[in-house]
Amino acid sequence: MSGASVGAPVERREGREKVTGAARYAAEFASPGRLFARPVPAAVARGRVTGVDVSEALRLPGVVDVLTHENAPRLGEPDDATLAVLQGPEIPHRGWCVALVVAESLEAAREGAAAVRVSCAREPHDVTLSASHPRAYVPEKANGGYPAVTEQGDPEGASAGAAARVDVGYRVPPLHNHPMEPHASTARWDGERLTVHTSSQGTTTVRAVLAGLFGLTEDRITVVAEHVGGGFGSKGTPRPDVVLAVMAALRTGRPVTVALPRRFLPSTVGHRAPTVHRLRLGADADGRLTSLVHEVATHTSRIKEFVEQAATPARVMYACPAVRTLHRVVALDVPTPSWMRAPGEAPGMYALESAMDELAVELGMDPVELRIRNEPETEPESGRPFSSRHLVECLREGARRFGWEGRDPRPGTRAEGPLLIGTGVAAATYPVLVGPSTASARALPDGGFLIETNATDIGTGARTVLAQIAADALGVPPERVRVRVGSSDLPSASLAGGSSGTASWGWPVHEACTRLAERLAAHPGRIPEEGLVEHADTAGRADAKSPYARHAFGAHFAETAVDTVTGEVRVRRLLGVYAAGRILNSRTARSQFVGGMTMGLGMALTEGSTVDAAFGDFAESDLASYHVPAHADVPDIEAHWIEEHDPHLNPLGGKGIGEIGIVGTAAAIGNAVHHAAGVRLRELPLTPDRVLAAMNAL
Predict the structure, then answer these.
(1) Which tens digits make up the pLDDT trace of 211-251?
(2) Is 659 a known active-site residue?
(3) What beta strand segments (E) does 549-612 contain?
(4) How many other CB atoms are there within 10 angstroms of residue 221's CB atom?
(5) What is the DSSP letter of 341?
(6) 266 in helix, strand or coil?
(7) CA 42 → CA 113, 516, 603, distances in Å?
(8) Other Cβ atoms closer than 10 A to 156
(9) Looking at 308, 607, 620, 659, which residue is catalytic?
(10) Among the listed residues 379, 378, 359, the one whose alpha carbon sits nearest the alpha carbon of residue 369
C-alpha cells in the first residue's frame, strides 16, 4: 500500500471537539423526560436478599421508581452471568446490584439510593488468594482460549543439571482500569424500538447481547458510542450499567441514564485479577536457557470463570528446550475479573523479565546480552516461523539510545547524596490480533468520500487513521474523506480491544476504497446524487489461521532514583523501542506508546488494590486511594520504533500498538530499582514502605 497520508503525523480529527466540550458522551444525550438511575450495591460479601424496604425512598421528592429483584423486568439467560442483575435474591459478592433507584435528577437518585433499606442473610465468604488454596484447580482453558498447561521436554531434569538457576516468586495485586469516563448508558424506547448510547469498546456486541436479554431482533436496536472516554478493557463487553438503563427505561416508559459512580467501578466492571507467580529458570554457563517453568495462581468469581493468561508469554519469548507453563485458579467470593491493559502479558512479562534479570545477576552477565543470547529462530511453543521478529534490534537500538554501554553492573555504585541511581531493562511482546470486520466507501457528488464502519474510537485516533488509509487507497487528500464510526447501524466491525482495532477495521476500509477507486476510474460522467458505494467484508480471511506466529516486540529501559531516607522511587527516564509493523500515524502511535509506558509505570510504583478479608471489599475504590501516575511522575519518557515490513499480517502491514507499551515497563523499573539499591522486591507496587523496609533489612 502506497501513499503520502499513511504514516504521517496527522492530528486527530475529533481533538477540537473534545477540548472544547462539543464531543458528547453516553450520559450527555438528554431526551425529553429523561430520568436518572443509581444502583444500590450489596453491603455483604456473600448471601441472599431477604427484604428490600423502598418506602422511604419513594417518599422522597423526585424519586419515580425503585427496581428490585421482585419487580424488575425478566431477562433472557445471559452468557455473561455478571449481567443477570436484579433477577434473584442471591448476592455473589459485595457491590452486587440489589436495587435501582430511578428519579427525575441525579441528585434525587443518589438520595433515594441512600434511603433504600436492604435486609440480607449473610453467608460465609472467602476472598483471599493463595497459591496453595485448597480449592485451586487447573482450568480447561485460560482467557483467550489458551491451554492452561503446556510442557515441552523435561524441565525438572534440565534444571537439575543447569550451571545457574533461579527459583523465585512474584505477586501482582488486583488492578483497576479507572477510565476517565466512568461506565454510563442512556436508553430510550420508541415503541418497540430501542436506542442506547453507551460507553463501550464495541457496540455491535452490545446490540447482540441486549437482543438476547430483552427478546428483541437486532434490527430493532441501535447502540451508539460516538465518543468514549477510555476503557482499557473494562468496556470491551457490556456491563451492568447498560442492562440497568434499558430495564429502567422499559419499566418507566421514559429515557433513563445510568452513570456508575467511580467508587462502584472496582466491584462492577471487572478488574485485573491478582496473580501469584513462580519462575524457575536454568541456564548453562554461557547463559543459554536449559529449563523454564512459569506457574501462575489467580482468582476468579463464583459466577463466571475468567483466568488471567499470565504464563502465556513464556511460551513465545525465548529459546529453551524444556518449558512448562501452568495456570491454576480458585473461585472466590469476589467480583468477576476481566480484561485490563494487556491482560496476561502485563503481569506475566513482569514476572518473566524480572526473573531473567535475576538470572543475569546469577550468571554475572549483562541482561541485554542474556536476552539476545536466547533469541529463538522460530516460535518456541508452536515451531511456526515468525511473520517478523526484531526484538534483538529493539534491544540493541534501545541500549544505544539509552547509553547502556559502560553500565557498571554492580548495584549501589551510583549515588547522588541520599539517592541511589540504577538502570534496568526488560523485553516486551504482544500478540497480533485481527478480527473480521466490514466497511463501506461512498463517493459523493460533491467530490468527497464517506467511509462507514462500526469501529469505536476510545481515544486512540481511530477516525484519523482510517481517514488516512482511505485517502491513500482513493488517491485523494485526507480532507476529502469523512469517517463515520461508533454506531451499530453502520457496517459491523470488531471491538476496540486486544490492540486489534486499526488492523481489523483498516483492512475492509482499504479494500472498499480500492474497489471504489477502480470503479471511479471506469465511471463515465458525474457521480449520481446517491453516490457510488463499495463494500468489503474480511470474514474468513481476517480470522483465518495463519501459518506464521504473529507478535509485536519491544524493549524497555528505565533509570530510577531510590531515596535511602524515605524509600521513594522516582523514575528519571523511560525509553521504549518497538517493532510493531508499519506505523500508520506517527503522532498517534507515539501517544499510544507513551501512554502505555505511563500505565506500566503506574503498575510498577503506584497502582495497587487490596481485598479486605473481613468485608470482601476492595479497599481502594476511588482515585484518592487508587493512585494513577500524574505528569510529575514521568519527567522524561521517549518512544521510538524500528521500520518493520511484515507482509503476513494484513494489507496495511500494521501490528497493534495500544498495549505493548505497558508490557515490559514494570519489570524494567523493578530491575532498575535492584540495580540502584541492591534490593530485589518481588511484589508490586514498589511503594516507599516496601522499598525502605527492604533496604533496612540489608
Answers:
(1) 999 999 999 999 999 999 999 999 999 999 999 999 999 99
(2) yes
(3) 551-563, 569-579
(4) 22
(5) S
(6) helix
(7) 12, 55, 29
(8) 13
(9) 659
(10) 359
pTM above 0.85, yes or no: yes
Cα of first residue to Cα of last residue in the chain, in angstroms, is 58
Residue-wise pLDDT for 247-300, tens only, equals 999 999 999 999 999 999 999 999 999 999 999 999 999 999 999 999 999 999
Cβ neighbours around 270 below 10 Å, total: 26
The Cα angle at residue 661 between residues 655 and 665, in degrees rounded to 5: 145
At 416, the amino acid letter reads E
Contact 25, 97 (CB under 8 A): no
Residue 432 CB coordination number (10 Å)? 25
Residue 15: pLDDT above 70? yes
Query: How far are the Cα atoms of 189, 198, 206, 449, 454 from residue 222, in angstroms, in the given order?
Result: 11, 11, 9, 24, 12
Is residue 593 a contact partner of residue 637, using CB atoms and an 8 Å limit?
no
Query: CA–CA separation, 254 vs 142, rounded Å?
Result: 42
Closest among 678, 8, 208 to 410, alpha carbons compared: 678
**Phi, psi of 473, deg, nearest 5:** -65, -35
Of all residues in the chain, what percent carry a pLDDT higher than 70? 100
Strand partners, 471: none
Question: In what helix (H) or strand (E) does residue 268 lie, and over which residues does it extend?
Answer: helix 265-268
- Whole-angstrom distance, CA of residue 257 vs CA of residue 54: 20
Q: Are the C-beta atoms of 561 and 676 separated by less than 8 Å?
A: yes
Q: Which residue, 113, 111, 89, is CA-closest to 101?
A: 113
